[in-house]
Design goal:
This protein has 422 residues and is α+β, with helices and mostly antiparallel strands. The protein has 6 helices and 26 strands. The protein folds into 3 domains: 48 residues; 254 residues, no CATH class; 107 residues, Jelly Rolls (Sandwich).
């Protein structure tokens, strides 16, 4: 039923005789209420209160094709297949500064890669320019959200190896066929010794050392873990095998997992710890399986979120990180992919009055509309705020430069990043 018809119906209801056998004052209130309800329904009814603005109504807010640009720059960096542009734009909320990197993945010499801070999951983090310089990248942007230990919270896959199993939020993945994927991924695994096996709950999640869980830890963790009361089994990988390990030591009620070097470890609490202590023995050869779904062939993956665009349409991610920030203006880091998958866009909007333009930042809905207007068929956000950063090596330069204006006034140490290589 239309809003107009609902309003008229309510007007008739309140005019019914059953509502008229009251005092003169009450009748006046009924007339006022009836009129208000009619106007209320004509102007949108309950939808004006409970229908979220994000994302469907966002396009009406900014028509990016009509936004004037100023101080625009454009250059090819290191290769003609990677184009960098920056510009100032003026929207209703105020000035904005945007940095855009257009990457041509149709050239098979260009590829994306994930880099962990100092090649470890836990530590003090690393600035993007350092990651770029030490790995020989052309350009890059900051990646996943991270906790107080500067540990990324989501999936990390580097060169086909699961460095950290998925968390709860969206993942940017690159498959073996160079397809870009965006969305949630799940983990499953098992540990098998002879004819007995146990579920493997996670890889390198330092919080999974309790509640009867069984976790695998590798040297990529980068630090020791203390305060445990678990069974720890140290393992030596079998050469030329991705899944076979030889049991070295078994330590029930261990309190510390030492820094791992050239060995891995299983850590089991509760029932899982009992299973390890009862079934594994030194020199046993065990099999550890790890699978990611729905994309089991990821060669690179990095966590982030929320997903903003799915199959060419605005998308409201049902599980966004920091949902309370959806309508807050912030510096934002995003990635978009064209429909044919040939072009990837790295996008940074400055915010928090950073830089000469005193950029205001965008809401998530505004970023979604910007990406859609610029040809993104799939798109998602990464960690943002003070972490939002783009770095690139200008043509002829050996070292990376910071392209945008980080809101901290300097580069922030982050957990990881997504980079472009030639």
């Amino acid at each position: 039923m239309s809003r107009l018809r609902w309003g008229l119906l309510l007007s008739h209801i309140f005019a019914h005789p059953a509502f008229s056998r009251t005092s003169h004052d009450v009748k006046n209130y009924q007339v006022i209420l009836s009129t208000a309800l009619t106007i209320f329904m004509l102007f949108g009814g309950w939808s004006t209160i409970i229908t979220p603005i994000y994302p469907d109504q966002a396009l009406a807010a900014i028509n990016w094709s009509r936004i004037a640009t100023h101080h625009a720059t454009h250059e090819q960096i290191a290769t003609r297949n990677v184009e960098l542009s920056t510009q100032d734009v003026q929207i209703t909320a105020g000035p904005e500064h945007v940095s855009l990197l257009d990457i041509n993945l149709a050239n098979r010499n260009i590829h994306l890669g994930v880099v962990e801070a100092n090649n470890h999951l836990l530590g003090s983090g690393e600035v993007l320019s350092s990651m770029t310089n030490r790995t020989g990248a052309i350009a890059g942007i900051n990646g996943d959200f991270f906790d107080g230990m500067v540990d990324p919270i989501g999936l990390v896959v580097i060169n086909g190896q699961i460095v950290q199993s998925p968390g709860y939020y969206a993942v940017l993945g690159v498959t073996a066929s160079r397809q870009i994927t965006m969305g949630p991924e799940t983990f499953s695994g098992s540990v098998t010794d002879g004819d007995t096996s146990h579920v493997l709950n996670s890889t390198n999640h330092h919080g999974d050392t309790h509640n009867g869980q069984l976790a695998l830890f590798t040297p990529e963790l980068g630090t020791s873990l203390s305060g445990l009361n678990d069974t720890i089994v140290t393992l030596r990988p079998v050469r030329a095998s991705a899944s076979l390990y030889t049991v070295q030591t078994i330590q029930p009620h261990a309190t510390t997992l030492p820094v791992l070097s050239h060995q891995d470890a299983l850590v089991g609490s509760g029932e899982a710890g009992t299973w390890l202590a009862s079934n594994l023995h030194p020199d046993d050869q065990i099999n550890i399986s790890e699978q990611i779904a729905p994309n089991p062939d990821l060669v690179q993956a990095i966590g982030g979120g929320p997903v903003l665009i799915k199959n060419g349409s605005l998308y409201k991610d049902p599980n966004p990180p920091n949902p309370s920030e959806a309508s807050t203006r912030n510096p934002l880091t995003a990635i978009g992919v064209s429909k044919d998958g040939a072009h990837v866009f790295f996008v940074i909007f400055d915010g928090r009055l950073a830089g000469p333009s005193r950029s205001r930042g965008l809401t998530r809905a505004e970023m979604a509309s910007y990406l859609l207007a610029h040809g993104a068929y799939q798109a998602m956000l990464f960690d943002s705020g003070g972490s939002s950063e783009m770095v690139a090596r200008h043509s002829g330069q050996q070292r990376a430069s910071v392209i945008n204006h980080p809101s901290d006034g300097h580069e922030r140490r982050v957990a990881n990043g997504l980079f472009v290589y030639k």
